[in-house]
Structure formats: structure tokens, C-alpha cells
Amino acid sequence: MNYSEIYEQELLDNVMPFWMKYSIDEENGGYFNCLDRFGNVFDTDKFMWLQAREVWTFATLYHEQEQKPAWLAAAKHGADFLESHGRDEAGNWYFSLDQFGNPLVQPYNIFSDCFACMAFAALYKADPQPKYAEIAKSTFDNILKRRANPKGKYNKAFPGTRALKNFALPMILSNLSLEMEHLLDQQVVDGLLKDVIHEVMDVFYQQDTGLILENVNLDGSFSDSFDGRLVNPGHIIEAMWFMMDLGVRLNDKRLIEKATDIALKSLDYGWDKEFGGIFYFLDIKNKPVQQLEWDQKLWWVHLESLVCMAKGYALTGRTECKDWFEKLHAYTWSHFRDPEHGEWFAYLNRRGEVLLPLKGGKWKCCFHVPRALFQIAQTMKQVVA
């Protein structure tokens, strides 16, 4: 089976045409995020990290896949909206705006900044206008300033009682550092890479289980609490392909092998032995989790796992990666893909039935599906069948 051709065809013929046709708000700028199965807009609110992710997707595909003028125009269309409406006076990126660009939700979440940074860094590669580089670099500087306390005044935790740090930020920074490398001083990149690899692979990694926790105490120790026991298999596996990319960048085979080991352990741990698919959340001590959606099967978890196993097999040749890729491919394509109306479903129940027939919403946009399809198509070109 020629996986490279299959994934590239799906990207070009099924997924991207859906977003080009239904997502672009020609009247007010930016993109419609909330699309039902058929591409109809069911809500007009615009979420900044989703807007930015879509800019990144169009810009990256233009730069790395094919220089289609429509893709570059779509990327700049979204970037113009972000530049005009996306930030407060201090340069922090809002969480959401209304259809016309008026702020709805304050910039409480640093991930809006992370994805805006990615967006403008990618757009600068596609169209090297100085303003794109300036926005990316100023946003990146702001991220580093907020890194120790990402939510700032919007942090709900009472100070000093149970201070935890979260895995999501070092995970994203491990990818963002490579996305930003062409705009940063090499010493800054090298220092950041060293820090994020240590955080991901040493601090959050638990040697006794071989897994990575979502939250740990500030000193890296285990917190026996809801948050401290939480495991998100999809987060771990996505982070491991980021680590693999860093291993390639640094020519560090040991990092690639360790990332592969952790990914395989996480897949085995997170796989639903009864119904198939990967659980969303689990408790490291097998206690009840607080997230009621713990047993749902999510699109991004499975797609990122496919990327990780493709890279693991291409980089190490390990047959376990090949076997898992084929198992994931069979489940993911048969459950998430919509052959009738384009794009992919996002949320399944534990049995693998479609739970919400949306194609875009508050958390899903033109990002995980096309990025994964692109990554797998490119990676599988390296694999000799």
C-alpha cells in the first residue's frame, strides 16, 4: 500500500478543498471556525488559536507542498484579520472575537500567542514581508516572558497551596522552537531546545511507568491529585514526534529512540482493548478521572499518533511502529473520515460512533487533519516498502 500517495491525495482532494470552500469569511475577514458536517456555518465566533492555525496551514502548504496562489491568498486573508483585531494593547492575543473582530474572551490562554507566532513565522517563509517576522518575534518574546506564569492574572489557582506546572507549554515550545528557528538567534534556539527537551523527557517523564504526566509539582515530583494523576496519551504521542524532529535536527539518535519507546508505551497504555481507538484521558493510578469525556475518541489524538508511528518507523525501522501505524490507519480512516461530505469527524463515543457531526468548532479547525496528512505523506516517501 502506497501510504504517501493515499495521504497526499486525501490532503489535496478531500480536506483542503473543504476549508477553501466553506471556511473563508470573505465579508469580514478571517475564517469561520464552526462548520457542520456539510460545511454550513453554525456559529460565527472566531477563536484566535484556530484562526492562527489555519493561517499556518495555508502558508505551510504553499511553502512546502505546492505554490498555489489561492493558498497564499487564504493565508494572508487570515493574517490580515489577526493583525487588525487579534491582540490587546499589551500585545497579548485574545482567545476569541466575534464575527466582525470585536473581542469576546480575554487573552487568558498563552496558546493563542503560540499559534499566532507559528502562523506569522510560517507566513514569513511563504511571503517574506518584514511585518510578518516582526509580529512572530514580538509574540515569541511575549511567550517567553509569560512562560513561568502563562495565565497571569487569569490563573484560577490559589497561590502556594498546590503549585503545579503543565506539560502543554514545554510540549508546544518544542515544536515552536523549530517553527521559529529561521527568525531567531542560534544561541536562543539552542538554549530553548535544551530546556524543552529536559522538561519533556526528564521532568514530566516518569521512569517507573514509562509515561508522561500532564501536571507535576514545580520540582518535578508526583502530585497524588486529580491533576497530578492525569495522563493524556494523545499529548504524549504528539510530543514524541516533536522530539523525533528535534532528534533529527540535533542528530541525536538516543533522543529519537527514547521518544519512540515512550510513544509505543503510551499507545499500548492508551489503546481501548475492548472497542479500539485511544482513550482521551486516563488516571495513572486507575482511579476515576474528573474529565467526563475521558473515554471519547478524538480526531487529533489518532492523527498525531499516525504521524508519530510514521516517523518512528522511518527513523528507526522498528516493526512495532509499522504494526501500530497500520492498526491506527485502519481504525482512523474507517471511523473519522467522512467520504460523503469531505473532511473528518472530530468526536466519537467510546464505541467509535460519531458523537458530534461537526467538521470545525471551538477546538477543531483546519490544522490537525491537514498537518497530519502532509506530515505522513512526506514521511512515507522516505520509507521503502
Specify the number of helices: 12
Number of strands: 14
Shape: globular
Q: Could you give the order of the helices and strands?
A: HEEEHHEEHHEHHEEEEHHEEHHEEH
CATH topology of the largest domain: Glycosyltransferase
Q: If you had to describe this structure to a student in words, what would you say it looks like?
A:
- A three-stranded antiparallel beta sheet has the order 3-4-5. The chain has a three-stranded antiparallel beta sheet with strand order 12-13-14.
- It is mostly helical and 385 residues long.
- It contains twelve helices and 14 strands.
- Helix 4 packs parallel to helix 6 (168-179) and helix 10 runs parallel beside helix 12 (368-380).
- The protein is globular, with a radius of gyration of 20 Å.
- The mean pLDDT is 96.
- The chain has two domains: 1-43 and 204-385, Glycosyltransferase; 45-156, no CATH class.
- It has helices at 3-22, 48-64, 69-85, 110-126, 130-146, 168-179, 186-203, 233-250, 253-270, 299-316, 319-335, 368-380, and strands at 34-35, 41-43, 46-47, 96-97, 103-105, 164-166, 205-206, 211-212, 215-217, 230-231, 282-283, 297-298, 347-348, 354-356.
- Strand 1 (34-35) and strand 2 form a beta hairpin.
